[in-house]
Amino acid sequence: MINGRTCLHAVANGTMTGQRYIDEVLLPHVRLFRGAVGDKFVFMDDNATCHRTLAVQDCLDSEGIQRLVWPARSPDLNPIENVWDALGRQVAGRNYPPTNKNTLIRALTEEWDKLPQQLLDNVVQSMVRRVECCITLHGGHIPY
Predict the structure, then answer these.
(1) Could you tell me the CA-to-CA distances from 68 to 42, 44, 131, 135 in Å, in that order?
(2) What is the Cβ-side half-sphere exposure of residue 46, based on CA atoms within 13 angstroms?
(3) What are phi and psi of 72, to 5 degrees?
(4) pLDDT tens digits along 20-59
(5) pTM of the complete model beyond 0.70
(6) Distance of CA 6 to the CA centre of its chain
(7) How far apart are CA 42 and CA 66, in angstroms?
(8) How far apart are the C-alpha atoms of 26 and 11, rounded to whole Å?
(9) R_g (Cα) of the chain, nearest Å
(10) Could you give the 3-state DSSP secondary structure of residue 44?
(11) Deepest of 45, 52, 55, 127, by most Cβ within 10 A of its Cβ?
(12) CA 92 → CA 8, 54, 65, 75, 87, distances in Å?
């Protein structure tokens, strides 16, 4: 978001399912963040299979969380991919790269905190252009 960010939360054990996504991401983090931001909050995920289950959609609906809909397989339109790329480059450029899951999580968390806020602000501000592009690609509407 502009002028801020949440903490990075690593979910690293096992396979992410729709129910795990609800229990470990949506309810403890997204719901609370939406409550803090208010009615203008729009949630964006990355179209992963676990994000698209009926249980996840039911959870979002029941919590009053509006999801920004993106076409499948369109990572170039999703601004979070730019953030993940920057974060990955920072981790890869460390003097002592991570050698196991624990050091990777620590490195990701440390580098997340160091990412320039201006990068995140620019990504959020690019949303207007990305949404316009998405609408153009789909004949004037975003498919649901």
Answers:
(1) 6, 5, 10, 12
(2) 11
(3) -60, 150
(4) 999 999 999 999 989 988 888 888 888 889 999 999 999 9
(5) yes
(6) 11
(7) 5
(8) 12
(9) 16
(10) coil
(11) 45
(12) 17, 36, 35, 21, 9
